[in-house]
Input
Amino acid sequence: MAALSTVCFFSLIVLGVSAYLISLTEQVGFYYTFMAFAVAIAALTLITFPPLLIISFIRKGALFNYIIVEVGVLGLFWVLWLATASYTANTLVLLPLDCNFIDPSFVTSCHELQAIHAFSWLNWLILTAYWPFLLVMALIQQNRGNPVWTKSVGEVDMFAPGVVVATQVYPPQQQQPVMYSPQPMQQHPQMGYPPNAPGTTYSPVPTQGGYTPTQPQVSYAPTPTHQPQQHAAGGYPQV
Output
């Protein structure tokens, strides 16, 4: 914040001196363009930076105070003050460095021009030191896991260490042996027949071709034939 306050103070000096020189040159009917440019940039700086400082104190979390917004604004004014200092230096090349003029009024105006040139470069140098520092530190904190882009500069510790994610280490679990109760062996029924049980009669298995096997034939004893009675020799049968 001290850097921005210093830029505001130097901008106020540039604005006052440039406006005074413009008022002097307008008396003779002209003014230098670089003076008007310096007035515009100094006025724009005084419109932008003081609210940036005030809001950061009275309101936390405002969009205007986000670091990403501040980095963009500082980058823009870094370019504008570089242009102001270069434009003024291009004009002062035509003047002697010691402002050795016969007319004392020209000597005073020459020193005032040198003041505009000097404070313009000082503003640019301050922004050159502060803007890259803020950008680089914000990138470093973002890489360390600290979100800073949506916070103000006063809320962020630019030198904070990285966020360490604690990983909980669990002790190795010892696998308990699983105890199984002995299961009763299932008694499989014995193949065959129980004792004193009649056997099962199986029908004959049909043979190939669909014919049943030849049944054994029952043999019958021959019927005895009737033998004729023998008669006594030489005799005839009795009637």
Q: What stands out?
A: Helices lie at 2-25, 33-58, 67-92, 104-143.
